[in-house]
Design goal:
Radius of gyration: 26 Å
Mean pLDDT: 83
CATH architecture of the largest domain: 2-Layer Sandwich
Low-confidence stretches: 1-8
Helix content: 40-55%
Largest sheet: 7 strands, mixed
Length: 290
Amino acid sequence: MELSVEKPESIVKLYDENSGLWRFVKTDKGPAKSMETIEKALRGLGLSKNEVKVYVYLARTGEHKASEISEALSLHRTETYRILRDLEKRGLISSVFEKPLKFIATPFEKALDILIETKRMKLNLLEKKRQNLVNIWLSLPKPEVELERKEVFQILEGEEQISLKADEILGKAEKEILVFISENDIANFYHSGFLDRLEKTSKKGVTVQLLTNYSPKTCFFIEKIKLKKTKYSRLNSDELPTFIMADNEQLLLLIRKENGKKKVAALWTNYDAFIKALKILFTELWNNDA
């Protein structure tokens, strides 16, 4: 006989000020998923995991003493006070001057504005420092090394990094770009602007060939662009990953899992044998499809 046990993530511990007791409340997966999205976004804006926990707890449950926060979130009291000080310096929480001292969260919308503006200011500062850093680097004595082409691999994670690398490949291409985009990826490539940039590259004298699976979805997006050399693969290429090749020198290969439904990373390489193998595959698909 199996016992039904709730998973810890489906239970939330809340403090009831009226009774002075802690209550354990069951949550459904919908709000839990939403909270996961919010917490991930706050982490991306520079907060640590425990800083996110403290801010979200205060924003969701109202003002609390440090000891209550520490107990509710199972954090050491010293760490809790440090986090509260740091969040207050950032303008994300405020102190309520009562005895004992309590803390209250800045409204979520305003907190987001503060974090985004802080991020923007840091980026602006780095941009201003960029040229100075480049000049310093170029002024360093050059070691006498023999330049040699190395065959290397690079793993890229995240949509932004993959998109930046794809744009870099387009920017450096001088003769030829071969692209196979699977049905799973074509919407992302279209909405990111990659297909538009691919079209502009073709107008600069670079030969661009785009191949994709044949489906209503791919037809919809292909019809929106004006590439001259576009074909649909009618072979059984559902398992073939999206890849981009430029001038027989660079290859960007998307790595996916869960039957192609979730993109996790991409592999960039200038490894000659790897590039030649996929070039042969691309050419075979191109020549055999209408």
